[in-house]
Amino acid sequence: MDAYSAEAEAAASPAASNLKAQDSNQGIFHAVWTFSFRMVLRYIKNSYKDDPFRTFLEICLIGFIIWYITKQKYNIGNNEIVLSEKEIDELVDEWKPEPLVPELTDFEREILDKAVIIDGPNGTKVRLASGSNTKPVVNFASYNFLGFLDNTDLEKHAYETLRKYGVGSCGPPGFYGTLDVHMELEKQVAAFVGHSAAILYSQAFATTLSVIPCFSKRGDIIVADESVCFQLQQAITLSRSKVYWYKHNDMADLERVLKDVNKQLVGRRGKKALPRKFIVTEGLFQNTGDISPLKDLVDLKHRYKFRIILDESYSFGVLGKRGAGLTDHFNVDPHEIDLMIGALCYAIGASGGFCCADKDLIEHQRLSGLGYCFSASMPSILTVAASDAIQALESSPNSHLASMRENTTLLRTLLKRIPGLQVDGDPESPLIHIRLTPETLVRMKRSGGAWTNTDIKRVLMELSDETQKDGVLFIPSQYVDEHERLLPNPSIRICVSAAHTRKEIEKCAHAVKSAVSRVTSKKR
């Protein structure tokens, strides 16, 4: 081979190599494509043979994907409206934003202007920040049933706790907010009530709003007393359950509702899971002062296969031989109550709330109770105060409960002797509601025609103002009118305390009698 031929062959060899590489790649691609096509064909044949319906669904899905990718996209275009500076200024001047809070009515403004403000610590005797009366008044407006707000021993220990633990944990219990005092109080509450376990919440209102939605969900069923307090009504609403209401403390009507609910569920058995069913009520009703007939509730619970959620916010520390609540009052096994809710800010004089139940239900709340998971834990100073109060109640129940019940009986007896006054609530309830009798309202001269709720509330406000002049403090009951399931009749709520003396009880009755006489004699 001559030099020219060798050079030509050397120059042509790279191109030949590239051609061979391209042919090789094309061969590999063709082989892979052929193999894949055969595999897809084999999958389609086997799939159609074994499950033709699945093949149909896959073809529909592929067709939808192709249609979605190739369809014409919506083009919003340029719809901008160009306004002049003058037009913009005119629109701004015409715009009137809606108020975040609706304007107060004249009566609401009147209530706000007359709101009672306590100057200094709360207790049996308090000073008012407004008004001409600068002397201390006897306080019948606070839920200080056992008188723990005036206990100097609890106050001293609270100061010591503040120096040891500080003000608060600043964190939820599930993270770094749990202290030893929290765990000790949970054990103490469960042992005092007689239930399996307990869980603490930092606020009493949040306790109810956390526990009920934690267990009763959308599709579940709640049968509730129509006179339950506002916080229970809100918790029931938040649960999004199907709700049925029965007449207040009417066990015959409750049984009728339970029968109707079970009849509706007969056709669902075997088709899908049955809903959870709850009876919701209060131990001591805030709006009426009545006590729930617990034994009848437990009997109906077993007969119709329901669970009971009992709110003992106002009965804990008040009812029963030991002050352990409604189960102690009726001598009923606490385990009959599936979920027992209580408050530590009323009779106990501290803060927060609790729920007593079986251990599994308590552990569920530690993961699903919103008030437990997302709110800072109870301050240690209030935790220790609640623990000391329960310990004091356990060690000497007679010194607190006996005094409270003696004062309650005395005040009820004296109030019932006042002409024109209606005294409501259970005889053993230290939470008393007083109203003017319908006959008294009829006898009162009024030029405006029939009495309305607003008119009656104004009269009760006058009654409250008159008693303050005589050195006795209580205020008319206030309700969220638009959101109350059953709006109670206007009343004045009186809270009896174990710390009240006999003279203070007699002073309260005398002040009410004088106020009723002065108010009812006025021309309207």
From TrEMBL:
Gene3D superfamilies: Aspartate Aminotransferase, domain 1 (3.90.1150.10), Type I PLP-dependent aspartate aminotransferase-like (Major domain) (3.40.640.10). Keywords: Acyltransferase, Lipid metabolism, Pyridoxal phosphate, Sphingolipid metabolism, Transferase. GO terms for molecular function: pyridoxal phosphate binding; serine C-palmitoyltransferase activity. It comes from the Eukaryota. Its cofactor is pyridoxal 5'-phosphate. Belongs to the class-II pyridoxal-phosphate-dependent aminotransferase family. Residues 136-511 form the Aminotransferase class I/classII large domain. The keyword Disulfide bond does not apply. Pathway: Sphingolipid metabolism; Lipid metabolism; sphingolipid metabolism. GO terms for biological process: ceramide biosynthetic process; sphingosine biosynthetic process. One of its GO terms (cellular component) is endoplasmic reticulum. This is serine C-palmitoyltransferase. It comes from Coemansia asiatica. InterPro entries: Aminotransferase_I/II_large, AON_synthase_class-II, PyrdxlP-dep_Trfase, PyrdxlP-dep_Trfase_major, PyrdxlP-dep_Trfase_small. The lineage of its organism: Eukaryota, Fungi, Fungi incertae sedis, Zoopagomycota, Kickxellomycotina. Coiled coil: none annotated. Its EC number is 2.3.1.50.
